[in-house]
Design brief:
Pfam families: CTNNB1_binding, HMG_box. The protein is of the alpha+beta class. The chain has helices spanning 38-52, 58-85, 148-152, 179-182, 218-224, 232-235, 255-262, 272-277, 288-303, 309-322, 325-345, 361-371; strands at residues 111-112, 165-167, 170-171, 249-250, 281-282, 379-387, 390-403, 408-420. Strand 6 (379-387) and strand 7 (390-403) form a beta hairpin. It is globular, with a radius of gyration of 26 Å. It binds a DNA duplex (15 and 15 nucleotides) through residues 15-17, 19, 72, 75, 91, 93-97, 205-206, 209, 254-256, 283-290, 292-294, 297, 307-318, 320-321, 332, 335, 339, 350-352, 354-363, 366.
Length: 421
DNA sequence: ATTCCTTTGAAGTAT
DNA sequence: ATACTTCAAAGGAAT
């Protein structure tokens, strides 16, 4: 049986990479996993103050921008340094977005230019192992679903094809034979989830925020919450087609549909078409960082007075980078299993299925601002021009820059010319 | 009521 | 092959 972390032939895990961030200036010293540094707080609070103090004046706006830049520098530094510290095969994301700002020292005058495909289920779906899927489990705590006990006792299930074709003609990454090992089916098909042993028993999902106000032990709370807390989604439509509720399945678009599902089977006089349109959405499996956030968010909230998720997430991002390889490996492994389980449960599902379900103003903004084609940064055109009786060589630059810190994109044209007789 | 913000990673699309 | 985009969670803030 394939071993965890063997990596051999595991396409799914191929993208699980470790990050080693050990050389980021001030963060060189490793931040203990459970220690919320005062610097985190200070940074965050100062950033919040800076943001809130902004006024409409240009000077203040500049100050805000600078403050924002300072606050976000750590992340940018990480991004910039990422390639230097990636392990083999590490994917580098959005490098361009975080490259040095074009602001500094700009020497020129600038002329601004204005899972349930068709309801079909794989045969696997009726054979969901009892092992709690990671979706339903607080990923950190228990790790229970992924404990060695579960894996080591698993027998290779004949029900699970080594390679699942998820969509017609679409070859998804091969399911490796270790999947059954992760989610073993007890001999004799005992592994089927019964209505009483489904996702309800797991509380991956956050307790009410007030529950985090007290000193918090993730292991304790998560473990203790197994039977006491039920994810709200599970009350409604978070059901797998097998009848197995799964946190990844949520009503298509939030509360309204939730209400629809919550009304305990009351027949809703809806047009058939509308009903079809409201198929529950199968969420993406959580990646390593998301799993980490789920676990650590509560701690961070408990350790500071911050509530804003954006601020919390900044801290979590920094702490994530401060984790050791081993610590991160734990989450990468969890995430890998999440994906594997997700693939088993929703063989035909694709992340694309959820595309376009979020309306984003930023997307529109970006499209607007980039609608005037962003010329290749640094591109230069040089052409002779006729100016009266003289000729001029005009060098024309289009400089396109984008500042992620300021969420500002602009294209500038600049030129200089030399008269040639 | 809806979207934004903010993070990283996976997976999708576009070139 | 590479670059870029979208979404996953969270919840206060902004629209």
């Amino acid at each position: 049986m394939p071993q965890l972390g063997s990596g051999g032939g595991d396409d799914l895990g191929a993208t699980d990479e470790m990050l080693a961030f050990k050389d980021e200036g001030e963060q060189e010293e490793k931040i203990p996993e459970n220690a919320f540094t005062e610097r985190d707080l200070a940074d965050l609070k100062s950033s919040l103050v800076n943001e809130s103090e902004g006024s409409g004046s240009p000077a203040a706006a500049a100050a805000d921008a600078e403050a924002l830049r300072r606050v976000q520098d750590p992340q940018r530094v990480y991004q910039e340094k990422l390639p230097d510290h990636m392990d083999d095969g590490m994917k580098h994301q959005d490098p361009g977005m975080y490259k040095g700002s074009a602001y500094s020292g700009y020497p020129f005058l600038m002329l601004s230019d204005p899972y349930l495909p068709n309801g079909s289920m794989s045969p696997l779906s009726n054979k969901v192992p009892v092992v709690q899927p990671s979706h339903g489990v607080h990923p950190l705590t228990p790790l229970i679903p992924y404990s060695n006990d579960h894996f080591s006792h698993g027998s290779h299930s004949p029900h699970l094809p080594a390679d699942i074709n998820q969509k017609q003609g679409v070859h998804r990454p091969s399911q490796t034979s270790d999947i059954p090992g992760f989610y073993p089916l007890p001999p004799g098909g005992v592994g089927q989830i019964t209505p009483s042993m489904g996702w309800q028993s797991q509380s991956v999902y956050p307790l009410p925020s007030c529950g985090f106000r007290q000193p918090y032990s993730s292991a304790l709370s998560a473990g203790a919450s197994f039977s006491r807390f039920t994810h709200p989604l599970m009350l409604g439509s978070g059901m797998h087609t097998t009848g197995i509720p799964h946190p990844a399945i949520v009503p298509h678009s939030g509360k309204q549909e939730m209400e629809h599902y919550d009304r305990n089977m009351k027949p809703q006089p809806e047009p058939k078409r509308e009903k079809e349109a409201k198929k529950p959405t199968i969420k993406k499996p959580l990646n390593a960082f998301m799993l980490y956030m789920k676990e650590m968010r509560a701690k961070v909230i408990a350790e500071c007075t911050l509530k804003e998720s954006a601020a919390i997430n900044q801290i979590l991002g920094r702490r994530w980078h401060a984790l050791s390889r081993e610590e991160q490996a734990k989450y990468y492994e969890l995430a890998r299993k999440e994906r594997q389980l997700h693939m088993q449960l929703y063989p035909g599902w694709s992340a694309r299925d959820n595309y376009g379900k979020k309306k984003r103003r930023t997307r529109e903004k970006q499209q607007d601002s980039s609608s005037g084609k962003c010329v290749q940064p640094g591109s230069c055109s040089c052409f002779p021009a006729q100016m009266g009786e003289s000729k001029a060589v005009v060098v024309f630059y289009h400089v396109c820059f984008y500042s992620p810190e300021l969420n500002y994109r602009n294209t500038h044209s600049l030129f200089f010319s030399a008269m040639v007789n």
